[in-house]
Amino acid sequence: MALTKAAIAEQLFEELGLNKREAKELVEMFFEEIRRALEEGQQVKLSGFGNFDLRDKKQRPGRNPKTGEEIPITARRVVTFRPGQKLKQRVEAYAGTQQQ
Amino acid sequence: MTKSELIEILASKQSQLAQKDVELAVKTVLEHMAQTLASGDRIEIRGFGSFSLHYRPPRMGRNPKTGEAVALDSKFVPHFKPGKELRDRVNEGMERGLEIRDSGA
Questions:
Q1: Where is this region: Disordered (chain A) (predicted)?
Q2: Which of B2, B36, B49, B85 could be cross-linked to A3 through a Cys-Cys bond (beta carbons 3.0 to 4.6 Å apart)?
Q3: Is the pLDDT assigned to residue B14 strictly greater than 90?
Q4: CB–CB of A37 and B77 under 8 A?
């Protein structure tokens, strides 16, 4: 099952003894502050986990896949996540235990 | 913004927890997230985005020093897909003329 804010807060309650309201607020603020930094054009570096980088994309030609009509894809700023070395190694190790 | 800056901001924006507790909480959250991905599960945060694993098939690589061919095993890599609110807000930042800045560290 996917990890959600509720499950993260629950773990802060169980492991660190934060009360449920504090835990819920902290998790909410954690993601909100990362969003806010990115919104303000500030890249975010969380050592051991990864970096949230920003990239400006120029307008480029696009197409409506249903109708085939040409519509330009407007210039935009996008977020990319670059996992840190440590996270990459931990995730890579998962492949070894995977039944495929 | 670095992890320590994030911790400072969170500590300054709430009054119940000391900075040390916030620091421990942030590290616990990140560890929980990393552990989830390391065990092959997804992370889904509404309005922020989702993290999942992408499969990379085995391939032949090369040792960059010796040029020797090496067989590389298949693996999984973390992948992040930003949620709608994050996408929209980041884009509005650009429309407001805010420049992209690198964080201090």
A1: 50-73
A2: B36
A3: no
A4: no
